[in-house]
Amino acid sequence: MAEVSFPSQVLRGCGIDVHLKVVVATIKGEGIRKETRSFDTFTSSLTELKEWLLQNGITHVAMESTGVYWKPVYRILEDAIPNVWIVNARHIKNVPGHKTDKMDSEWICKLLLAGLLKPSYIPPKEQRQLRDLTRYRNKLIQHVASEKNRIMRILEDCNIKLSSVVSNTSGTTATKLIDWLCEGKFITLQDVESIYPFIGICYPDVSNGGYAIRM
Helices 125-157 and 172-182 meet at what angle, rounded to 10? Predict the structure, then answer.
């Protein structure tokens, strides 16, 4: 099969094929010989990859957006290489016969040098960190809400009508009452008054003869 050649738009580039345990990198360009190397995905190995690229004057790096495997590689290279591109895998059309990681990295490198790849938008580091923090905060909020609902379902299963007599089932009064119920304590009116002295209307039979209040 005849080799496909393209006019060069990038002087020196690197194509990287990223996997869980290994990355395969091919460099090519003006003034350097074509070379392919494999690196582990540990930080020390990825640092060796970065130093190798810097030694050869690589200005552009392209890799597929394969799961989350590209993220550690991107973090290591983004501050050292001027242009690190993450490319949608669907945009890389592999030619027949490219069945190895080495050939994949060579093909990515060839497309990069020819200017046929379009980088995906990657937010700046600070924005990514804020986004991750915000997403984690939302997950925690959802988890807390789920746990509150689970506690209320358990109380309802036990015929403890706490949600019917307090407006806020996660407030100070309700939380203290739940703690006492978990300890097996029989709740009296005096117990309720000790939590919230400004009592409105007392409702009996919250827990087999105990009391609760409407806030």
Answer: 60
Looking up tokens 């990223």, which residue turns up?
A: 18
CA atoms of 42 and 12, how far apart (whole Å): 25
Among 1, 14, 21, CA closest to 106:
14
Angle between helices 43-55 and 70-77 (to 10 degrees): 50
When computed from its CA atoms, the radius of gyration of the chain, rounded to whole angstroms, is 31
* Three-state secondary-structure class, residue 202: strand
Per-residue pLDDT tens listing for the chain (215 residues): 455 566 678 889 999 999 999 999 999 999 999 999 999 999 999 999 999 999 999 999 999 887 899 999 999 999 999 999 999 877 776 544 454 666 889 989 999 998 888 899 999 999 999 999 999 999 999 999 999 899 889 888 888 888 777 778 888 888 888 888 888 888 777 777 777 654 444 444 444 544 444 43
Find tokens 């690197």 and name the residue: 14
pTM of the prediction?
A: 0.68
